[in-house]
């Protein structure tokens, strides 16, 4: 299948998933995950109307944006794209990431929060962020343990006035497994509901669901789904660029 056929097929599936869940299509935003795919493919999908794109690696993301802005045909398109940082961000990269993405999905430590706050401190606008939750409490995995969420949220509210907490994100241990991930998505929604009560913040955003399981995520209340493979095809097996 061609890139645009795959993209349209994903849009069809998303329409179907929303209808099946009794949800309005405009309540769920598709993020096209373009990591390890070139700027030219981003341009093709953006030209078809896609606005939100996700990247995992800071260097790759910033380079791709430069490439897009510099290429004659796509500079206007490039200006209309909303970029999402969905990969783990080391705190020493905070200065490159703060202010450079419409939404950072992966805030998971005080150190990163401090780095982002420092980067944004002179800015007029605030940086929208999500907390990344290690939803199944897996050792070795990035993301915040569910039990540590209220304390980090309190810390950010008290110390990081330039960070705008919008919700939660997760990457369940099982993916490409359809309904197997569904209990994890439900769990993320419950954590969001508790954090709403704890903080009084609206927290409208739930970033969950990938190529293999986004229908289940939509059924459990996802507002952002992050889809790479089913749009852009398989990624090269080579080691990704260093974050
Ligand atoms: C790569 C990635 C995705 C996209 O995964 P696919 O299975 O290719 O759709 C979504 N979210 C995160 C955090 C990722 O790293």
Overview of this structure, please?
- This protein has helices at 3-21, 39-47, 58-70, 75-79, 94-97, 110-120, 149-159, 182-199, 214-219, 229-232; strands at 29-33, 52-55, 82-85, 103-107, 127-133, 163-170, 205-207, 224-227.
- It has 243 residues and is α/β, with parallel strands linked by helices.
- The protein has a single domain (3-232), classed as Alanine racemase (TIM Barrel, Alpha-Beta Barrel), CATH 3.20.20.
- Strands 7-6-5-4-3-2-1-8 form an eight-stranded parallel beta sheet.
- Strand 3, helix 5 and strand 4 form a beta-alpha-beta unit.
- The two termini are 31 Å apart.
- It binds pyridoxal-5'-phosphate.
- CATH class, anyone? Alpha Beta
Strand segment tally: 8
Shape: globular
Determine the mean pLDDT: 94
Number of helices: 10
In the sheet with the most strands, the strands line up as 7-6-5-4-3-2-1-8
Number of domains: 1
Classify the helix fraction into a percent range: 40-55%
Give the low-pLDDT segments.
none
Present as ligands are:
pyridoxal-5'-phosphate
What would you give as the CATH superfamily? Alanine racemase
Strand percentage: 15-25%
CATH fold topology = TIM Barrel
Structural class: alpha/beta
Distance between the termini: 31 Å
Over all CA atoms, what is the radius of gyration? 17 Å
CATH architecture: Alpha-Beta Barrel
| Largest sheet composition | 8 strands, parallel
What is the H-and-E element order? HEHEHHEHEHEHEHEHEH
GO molecular function: pyridoxal phosphate binding
Cofactor: pyridoxal 5'-phosphate
InterPro entries: Ala_racemase_N, PLP-binding_barrel, PyrdxlP_homeostasis
Protein name: Pyridoxal phosphate homeostasis protein
């Amino acid at each position: 299948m061609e890139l645009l056929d795959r993209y349209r097929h994903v849009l069809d599936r998303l329409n179907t998933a929303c209808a099946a869940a009794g949800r309005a299509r405009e309540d769920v935003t598709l993020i096209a995950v373009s990591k390890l795919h070139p700027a030219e493919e981003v341009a093709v999908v953006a030209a078809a109307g896609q606005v939100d794109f996700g990247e995992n690696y800071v260097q790759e993301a910033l380079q791709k944006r430069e490439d897009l802005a510099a290429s004659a045909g796509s500079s206007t398109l490039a200006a209309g794209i909303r970029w999402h940082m969905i990969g783990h961000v080391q705190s020493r990269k905070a200065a490159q990431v703060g202010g450079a993405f419409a939404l950072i999905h992966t805030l998971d430590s005080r150190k990163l929060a401090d780095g982002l706050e420092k980067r944004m401190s002179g800015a007029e606008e605030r940086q929208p962020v999500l907390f990344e939750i290690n939803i199944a409490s897996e050792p070795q995995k990035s993301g915040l343990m569910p039990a540590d969420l209220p304390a980090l949220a309190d810390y950010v509210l008290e110390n990081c006035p330039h960070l705008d907490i919008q919700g939660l994100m997760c990457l369940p241990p099982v993916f490409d497994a359809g309904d197997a991930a569904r209990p994890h998505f439900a769990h993320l929604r419950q954590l969001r509901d508790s954090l709403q009560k704890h903080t009084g913040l609206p927290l409208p955003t739930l970033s969950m669901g990938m190529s293999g399981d986004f229908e289940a995520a939509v059924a459990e209340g996802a507002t952002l789904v992050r889809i790479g493979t089913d749009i852009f095809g398989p990624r090269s097996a080579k080691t990704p660029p260093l974050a």
